[in-house]
Every structure is written in C-alpha cells, then in structure tokens.
Amino acid sequence: MVREHPDVGLDRSALGLPGDAFVSCSLKNPNWATPQDFDVWMTLLHGVPDRVLWSLAPNEILQQNLLNETKARGIGSERLVFADRLSTPDHVARLPKADLFPDALTTMPIPPPARRFCRGFP
Fold first, then answer.
1. What's the 3-state SS for the chain?
2. Domains of the chain
3. What would the pLDDT profile of 47-103 be if each residue is shown by its tens digit?
4. Which of 5, 20, 73, 108 has the fewest Cβ atoms within 10 angstroms?
C-alpha cells in the first residue's frame, strides 16, 4: 500500500540541491553515521563528479566537522548539501527529489526506509 503525501511543490534548487546533479540522500540523524559510513559516502562522491550527498542538517559543530572531513578527502564542500528539518509529511514529500538512498552500514533505522517504502520507492 502506498500512502499519498502532498508534493512539496518544490524543485531541487528550492531545496538547495543542484538541478543537474545525481543526489545521494541520507536524511537521517547524522549522529548515527559512523566513520565507515562516511568513507563509503565520500567514495561515492569521488566516483561521480556531479554527485552530491544530501544529509539532514546536524548541529553547527557536527556540520562543520563533516564539511572539514569532506574537504580533507579532496571533495568540495558544495557537494555536501544539508536539508532542513521539516514536518513528517513535508519530509516524506521531498524524498522523490533524491536519486539514491544509501543506508548506513552499521545502523538501519526503521523509520526512513519505511517512509521511502510508503512513497513507492523500491
């Protein structure tokens, strides 16, 4: 069963995403990601020059740490895009703006995959 959710009515640029980029999305709490998860995500970015990682915005300190780690790996900070926290219906409605949802290796919280399933994603 696919639940219907209102479309946020925004294009990618309104969400801070480049319109022509391949968007890998991890819109869960970044505190759950391990260094190994981040390594995989950075490998994905390194492999495809026009790919960005769309991540839920953490607190300012963690956000700066993630940007520093991205830069230390030779990847431009503009390729890490932070998403604002939204209400659940608006959050679910923006999910179709992404192209790929690589989950963390060590944790797989139930809510994000369940939300993607309800939006009709495989």
1. CCCCCCCCCCCHHHHCCCCCCEEEEECCCHHHCCHHHHHHHHHHHHHCCCEEEEEECCCHHHHHHHHHHHHHCCCCHHHEEEECCCCHHHHHHHHHHCCECCCCCCCCCCHHHHHHHHCCCC
2. 22-118 (3.40.50.2000)
3. 898 999 999 888 999 999 999 999 999 999 999 999 988 888 888 888 889 998 876
4. 20
